[in-house]
Each structure stands twice: as C-alpha cells, then as structure tokens.
Design goal:
By secondary structure, this protein is mainly α. Helix content is 59%, strand content 5%. It is globular and about 30 Å long. Could be involved in insertion of integral membrane proteins into the membrane.
Length: 80
C-alpha cells in the first residue's frame, strides 16, 4: 500500500474500530464496505481505491442490490 493510501485508510480503520461495533454487522454486500475500501486502497492506491470505495458506498442503499461484490483486479480496470 502506498503511503498516501495508508493515510486515506486511517478513517476507514477508525470507523471499523470505533463505530462498526455500535452499528452492527448489517452490510448488504460481501465483503463489507469497510473491508472493500481497505482492499481497494491496497490494490489500486489512494486515488483509484478511493473512487472504487465511494462507488461501492453509493450502491449501498435500500433500493440497491446485494450479494458478493469483490474488488476488481488492477488488470480488469484498465482502459483498452
């Protein structure tokens, strides 16, 4: 993980440590949004990982879908 991605991951880790136990484990997706965000930051870096995490959180609403939604591999997201 890049140094910038480590910095961007700090609020996600704080959420998992402090708030996640209070809110419960009711995530619609597998892996959870916080785990998805950390994995996206690790695989794609700070900018693209943040974008992928924001897109994932945007899909998490009552009318949205659910189920297994893994982080795409870096070679899967490159433009031709």
């Amino acid at each position: 993980m890049t140094p910038l991605a480590h910095i961007v991951a700090l609020p996600v880790r704080a959420y998992r440590l402090i708030f996640s136990p209070w809110v419960g484990f009711n995530c619609r997706f597998q892996p959870t949004c916080s785990a998805y965000a950390l994995e996206a930051l690790q695989k794609h870096g700070a900018v693209k990982g943040s974008w992928l995490a924001a897109r994932r959180i945007g899909r998490c609403h009552p009318l949205g879908s659910d189920g297994y939604d893994p982080v795409p591999d870096p070679e899967d997201t490159k433009d031709p």
